[in-house]
Design brief:
Blueprint (H helix, E strand, L loop, with lengths): L14 H12 L10 H11 L3 H21 L3 H17 L6 H13 L20
Helix pairs in contact: 1-3, 3-4, 4-5
Length: 130
């Protein structure tokens, strides 16, 4: 969670987030911007001035979501917040595995019958526990 430079938590908290947000703001111009205007306003006026707080939210949020999904505790809630984090990266103009992870998080969050084995809605489990 922390690097030797301490850019996520600690004295230099916010350095990594500031770099990411500055890069996202650079994608707001041109004929076909990757970042929409409303999100650029949010980044510039809310997130960037509070980069240190957002740095802690990202670092600890990712750890809490990951642990909750691995342990199976509050799976739907954890998947929802994991999806919110992925959506944040998507609207910031970052494309990698985030669309796939967003789809998986949405499936987990929408599955109302989690009985220890997460599955996408409308898929039958291989084994039914009764």
């Amino acid at each position: 969670m922390t690097t030797p430079a301490g850019v996520w938590v600690g004295e230099k908290a916010g350095a990594a987030v500031s770099g990411f947000l500055t890069g996202a703001l650079a994608k707001t111009g041109g004929d076909h911007p990757d970042v929409s205007g409303w999100y650029a306003w949010f980044l510039q006026h809310v997130a960037l001035p509070n980069a240190a707080a957002f740095s802690y939210l990202v670092a600890y949020g990712e750890v809490l979501v990951g642990v909750a999904l691995i342990v199976g505790l509050f799976t739907g809630i954890a998947a929802f917040f994991g999806g919110v984090m992925n959506a944040s990266y998507l609207v910031a103009g970052t494309i990698s595995t985030n669309p796939l992870l967003f789809i998986l998080a949405t499936c987990l969050a929408l599955d109302s019958s989690l009985h220890g084995a997460p599955r996408c809605p409308r898929l039958k489990p291989a084994v039914t526990l009764r």
